[in-house]
Design goal:
- The structure holds two protein chains of two kinds.
- By secondary structure, chain A is α+β, with helices and mostly antiparallel strands.
- Chain A is 25% helix and 28% strand.
- In chain A, helix 6 runs antiparallel to helix 9.
- The termini of chain A are far apart.
- The relative contact order of chain A is 0.06.
- A seven-stranded mixed sheet of chain B has the order 2-6-7-11-10-9-8, with helices on both faces. A three-stranded antiparallel sheet of chain B has the order 3-5-4.
- In chain B, a hairpin with a 2-residue loop joins strand 8 and strand 9.
- The termini of chain B are far apart.
- Strand 33 of chain A pairs antiparallel with strand 1 of chain B.
């Protein structure tokens, strides 16, 4: 909302308050000043008269002038088309500061120039705020004869000197969208008296009306209309033009301008119909019109059930609260009008305006809600101004359908509640003073302070806490103490899941991974890229773009995108993880962990070859992580996963706990990484909710075995399809309780080994809990192990 | 007959001239071995007249001790020299990086979340969470923003259906916990989480971002308590003692409501380009919990009061780490991520 200080000064004496004072006080009272606009600005400007004007010999458009500014005559080179002898002009002297910079002496094509002749544009006034007749549209401004040479108060005299504050108004303060109410607010903030024009009751005139109005919808609870049979259409008076100009509204004619001024002053959008468009003099507001309608902007809108329409003889003449109709608008030959001042349901106006895409100024104001007395005030002010500035005569009585339903109310607060909520020691006088400044007519009855809420704050001030906010806003409270809540002790701790996340993050970070946070919303195509998908994805009803319309059910697409971005930007060794909640239709949320490895992994050393991320690195990382979280390898079972098209069918596994799959990991399919330009990548996705549905094991310390262990290294030739897991299981089973550990230390295929075989080297550790094993015992067990390996897996010792 | 005096002079000179350990060993054998010069002197004893034997014997012994001492001294010098030579030959290029530990990093939004969680856990707060796919009820209705309330314009919402949406603020979590804790006063919560608005992404806007909101409800909670708590929080995130400025504002779920500015952490309030010359930076929204909000959750607003505050974590990250484009936080370029090894 723009607020012109010039206009404000009509209602409040601003003497002694600098612009900075005013702005600071307004900010402190809870308004954001988004912008401070100066309509026109410039120092060092003066009225001059062009004494001489000759063409510049070295230019096709420059003029060389001598300009009298009273105390001296300046030589100025000017490029304006309309520069000529005898003109009264605005001269910016050397040293003048204009929005475009400071004026300096210069030499233009060999001719010295000491100053500049200005157009209003050069003084910071935007083109659309210029009067149509202004010479500044084509060149330098041409001042009327009433200006004296040497005069400096040019902008003010032209009506272009003003400071406009662009205030952002919160949703609860729609009252401040009405200048008269805003003036009241400013009076309270600045602690100055406010004098508004005497307009109330001015519409209570006229002969019995020939007009009939009705509302056929509860969404128009109050409709006031008035016929004025004689008005004269002409240009507006100066003050109106200036006010409109400061709001960026173009002056058109006195009727249109009055309706705009009244809207600015009272907040109530008015509509003036040409009386000729309503020969039978009836108006009905309806909400059941369906069809196309041409509004006064010339566009056709599709109106449907629920939209409010103004009709006459059942034919639409305006889209209520949004825009009038082409056929009923005020024209150049209008001589009689109907004034409409009505209340429309803010929600309905917003729905309609949003749907048809026409959030006009009126619609925007209706959407925010109006004060309960806005219709009466606007009607009074409109009649007041029409009589004064449009020679309104033959006025008929106001006709009304419905009512404003306004009942004034009071709010009671006590000093002890106020001070208890704020934590401060306000005194009664302070509180009463603020309420007086606000025109809340405070009364004190014992403990109670009773505030009588004016109509324009009726929607906002309902509770004692609302009163408290007013007190805080309008008093100095920088001295408010700082305390911490004094309450019964509460326990602060992280939940199990929150601690689990930290363990995961710490481990992965310490393994050199970088944590990513990616977007939740995916395109239709991306949502299909899932691993361990939670279910059917949820789509947004009103997405902003095709790229972000579905809620992801897996982290896979996001991680692929992130990897692709990094690869495309030439980054190397991209090892990432992400932890995020996922959602799907009819499913509880699940939290997933995704890990993407690419390139080299882990610490780097000059001496050793870097470790390339592969299936085994990922497997070790996951098993290490699970071990840390309390899920040792024995509790996890691993199965090959050959059926996910994005993955290498023979280098991918799924993990199960208590029979349920909770993780999938492996090498991405060569065709997939080629298509996505990833190089190569190892991916894992882990469902933490499935995992943690099983309890982590608790730590139980084992006694350290004090008997010596015996190790035997063996190299076996095994069938290619036999897994290390099969062999280890077999050894442990055959060796019974004496085998304490089996570790693979080499795997070999190829040279000297048949195609269908591979070599596996293991260290078996034999150990008893209660005695030192004898060589005979070990030999006997070892032989049994070898026999079982041969019998069950055709695994034989290599020579 | 060997001249003891001459031998002594020769021996001392020779020992002084020794340059290396093998020569030293050679000389040790030459003088002190069983066939060495000293032994020869001893053997000559029998040719010494009886009365001279004691003094002769003493002189030989003295010489033997002297040579032994000198050799030992020399050995020490030579050994230490040899060690030095060896060490010199082992000199390395101290500036080479042969080992680089894989340090990894946490996302800046995680670092800030964890910092906040730790700070508030220390004050006895619980860390509450809730669904991102949320009911209109908790996101709006319970937060005192009924259907068609003008304040809904403040938050463009991603609806899923008329009753379900992607939460637009973590206030939704507060409303859930309030309802569940109506009979478990007092309530002290911090609610961090992802939220979504129907905004086009640019350098300062993101359709997805993170908030952390705090909520305290109990008997006698005051605005002064809110001020103290916020000073603690901002002190934790930036610098202890950072001043705050409260500006009255409007949020439907608090009354009174405040925007809070902090003294600029870059210039200390003198004015710079980060604070646009004002010395203050807008940092969070806060206020006293609206009585309607308490009542809707089944809490007696006459008995209990509370405060709430909410802060955008991207904004904190951008200010704290000097990030100029919010999208950098979601692009996950590892060159960006790798910097965040600690808070």
């Amino acid at each position: 909302m723009r607020m012109s200080l010039n206009w404000l000064s009509n209602f409040i004496n601003l003497d002694g308050l600098s612009e900075e004072d005013i702005i600071n006080k307004i900010i402190k009272a809870g308004f954001e000043v988004e912008e401070v606009l100066h309509l026109g600005q410039g120092t060092g400007i003066v009225v001059g008269e062009v004494l001489e004007c000759i063409d510049h010999p070295n230019s096709d458009h420059l003029h060389i002038t001598k300009v009298n500014i009273g105390d001296e005559v300046l030589d100025i080179v000017c490029g304006a088309l309309n520069c000529r002898k005898g003109l009264k002009v605005i001269v910016a002297k050397v040293g003048a500061k204009l929005p475009g910079g400071e004026i300096k002496p210069s030499v233009l094509r060999g001719v010295p120039s000491n100053g500049m002749l200005c157009s209003l544009l050069e003084l910071g006034i935007s083109k659309d705020l210029l009067d149509e007749s202004s010479a500044s549209h084509i060149g330098i401004e041409e001042l009327p004869d009433s200006f004296e040479v040497g005069e400096t108060d040019i902008l003010k005299k032209l009506g272009y000197e003003d400071t406009i504050l662009d205030l952002s108004i919160y949703a609860n303060r729609q009252d401040c969208l009405a200048m008269f109410s805003l003036a009241k607010e400013m009076g309270a903030i600045l602690n100055r008296e406010v004098t508004l024009p005497n307009y109330l009751g001015k519409s209570n005139v006229g002969k019995p009306s020939t007009l009939k109005v009705a509302s056929a919808t509860s969404n128009c609870p109050h409709y006031m209309a008035k016929v004025i049979n004689k008005v004269s259409l002409k240009p507006s008076v100066d003050w109106m033009k200036k006010v409109l100009r400061s709001y960026g509204i173009k002056a058109i004619n006195n009727l249109v301008d009055i309706s705009n001024i009244v809207m600015l002053e009272t907040g109530q959008p008015l509509h003036f119909f040409d009386l000729r468009s309503n020969p039978n003099r009836n108006i009905t507001v309806v909400d059941d019109y369906c069809g196309e309608y041409v509004a006064l902007d010339g566009n056709t809108y599709n109106i449907t059930n629920g939209d409010l329409m103004i009709t006459s003889d059942l034919k639409p003449i305006a889209i209520a609260g949004i825009m009038g109709g082409e056929g009923s608008k005020v024209l150049d030959d209008t001589t009689s009008i109907i004034i409409e001042s009505a209340a429309f349901d803010y929600a309905q106006i917003r729905r309609t305006a949003n749907r048809i895409g026409l959030m006009s100024e009126a619609a925007s104001r209706f959407s925010k809600g109006l004060e309960p007395l806005a219709q009466e005030k606007a009607m009074d002010r409109a009649v007041d101004l029409l009589i004064k500035y449009a020679d309104a005569e033959e006025i008929e009585e106001t006709v009304t359908a419905g009512s404003n339903n306004y009942v004034p109310h009071t709010v009671e607060e006590t000093l002890s509640h106020l001070n208890g909520l704020i934590g401060k020691e306000y005194q009664l006088e302070e509180v009463v003073d603020v309420l007086k400044r606000l025109d809340f007519a405070p009364e004190v009855e014992g403990e109670e302070i009773i505030a009588h809420i004016p109509s324009y704050r009726a929607n906002d001030i309902k509770l004692r806490e609302d009163i408290d906010e007013e007190i805080v806003r309008l008093t100095d409270f920088d001295d408010l103490k700082s305390t911490l809540p004094f309450l019964t002790t509460t326990i602060g701790k992280l939940s199990t899941r929150q601690s689990l996340r930290r363990d995961i993050r710490d481990l992965l970070m310490n393994q050199g991974l970088n944590e990513a946070v990616t977007y939740t919303l995916l395109s239709d195509k991306e949502k299909e890229l899932t691993v361990l998908s939670l279910g059917e994805s949820i789509a947004l009803a009103s997405p902003l773009s095709d790229a972000r319309k579905n809620i992801r059910t897996s982290l896979f697409a996001s991680m692929v995108n992130t990897l692709a971005y990094n690869v495309a930007h030439g980054n190397e060794d991209i090892n990432l993880f992400e932890l995020s909640s996922l959602y799907a239709k009819e499913k509880d949320k699940h939290e997933h962990l995704a890990i993407m490895l690419h390139g080299e992994f882990g610490s780097k050393s000059l001496k050793e070859k870097p470790m390339k991320a592969d299936y085994y690195v990922m497997k070790g990382l996951i098993y290490g992580l699970l071990d840390k979280l309390g899920y040792a390898a024995e509790r996890i079972s691993l199965e090959g996963e050959e059926n996910i098209s994005f993955f290498h069918p023979y280098r991918t596994a799924k993990l199960l706990i208590a029979g349920e799959v909770f993780a999938v990991f492996g090498e991405l399919h060569p065709s997939f990484v080629k298509e996505k330009k990833l190089g190569s990548a190892i991916y894992a996705e882990i469902d933490l909710d499935v995992l943690t549905s099983q309890k982590p094991s608790s730590i139980k310390s084992k006694e350290i075995n004090k008997y010596p262990a015996v190790t035997r290294d063996i190299s076996l030739l095994i069938n290619k399809d036999t897994t290390a897991h099969d062999i280890i299981k077999c050894i442990k089973k055959a060796g019974k309780s004496l085998v304490s550990n089996v570790k693979v230390f080499d795997v070999f295929e190829g040279k000297d080994i048949a195609n269908d075989k591979r070599s596996l080297s293991l260290t078996i550790t034999y150990l008893a809990k209660d005695r030192t094993l004898t060589t005979e015992e070990v030999n006997k067990t070892h032989d049994e192990v070898l026999k079982d390996l041969a019998d069950k897996y055709q695994a034989f010792l290599r020579n | 007959m060997i001249d003891i005096k001459k031998l002594k002079e020769e021996a001392l000179k020779e020992i002084a001239d020794i340059k290396d350990l093998p020569t030293l060993e050679e000389k040790r054998l030459f003088y002190l071995s069983r066939k060495g010069e000293i032994q020869k002197l001893m053997l000559a004893m029998k040719e010494i007249p009886r009365e001279d034997k004691p003094s002769y014997g003493q002189k030989v012994n003295e010489l033997k001790n002297l040579i032994s001492e000198e050799l030992a001294k020399k050995q020490e010098v030579l050994t230490s020299f040899a060690m030095n030579e060896k060490l010199k030959s082992e000199k390395i290029d101290l500036t080479l990086d042969s080992y680089t530990p894989a340090l990894g990093s946490l996302h800046p939004l995680t670092l800030i979340t964890e910092q906040l969680e730790d700070a508030f856990v220390g004050l006895g707060y619980s860390i509450a969470e809730g669904p991102e796919v949320e009911l209109d009820l908790y996101n709006f209705e319970r937060a005192n923003i009924p259907y068609d309330h003008p304040a809904r314009d403040m938050q463009d919402t991603f609806y899923i259906d008329p009753t379900t949406l992607l939460r637009t603020h973590t206030t939704a979590i507060q409303m859930r916990v309030l309802e569940a804790s109506a009979d478990k006063m007092p309530i002290k919560l911090l609610c961090p989480g992802k939220v979504y608005r129907r905004d086009d992404d640019d350098a300062t806007h993101s359709h997805q971002f993170m908030q952390a909101e705090g909520l305290v409800v109990g008997e006698g909670i005051t605005l002064a308590d809110l001020k103290g708590t916020l000073e603690f929080m901002i002190g934790t995130l930036f610098k202890e003692g950072t001043p705050l400025r409260f500006r009255p504002s409007y949020f439907p779920f608090t009354e009174p409501s405040f925007e809070v500015d902090m003294g600029c952490h870059v210039c200390g309030g003198k004015g710079c380009n980060v604070c646009k010359g004002t010395g203050w930076i807008e940092i969070l929204g806060s206020g006293m919990v609206h009585p309607h909000v308490l009542e809707m959750a089944g809490i007696d607003s006459k008995k209990y009061t509370g405060f709430a505050f909410g802060v955008g974590l991207e904004r904190i990250a951008m200010l704290k780490y000097g990030i100029s484009d919010i999208r950098d936080l979601y692009t996950n370029d590892i060159r960006f991520l790798k910097d965040f090894k600690r808070f």
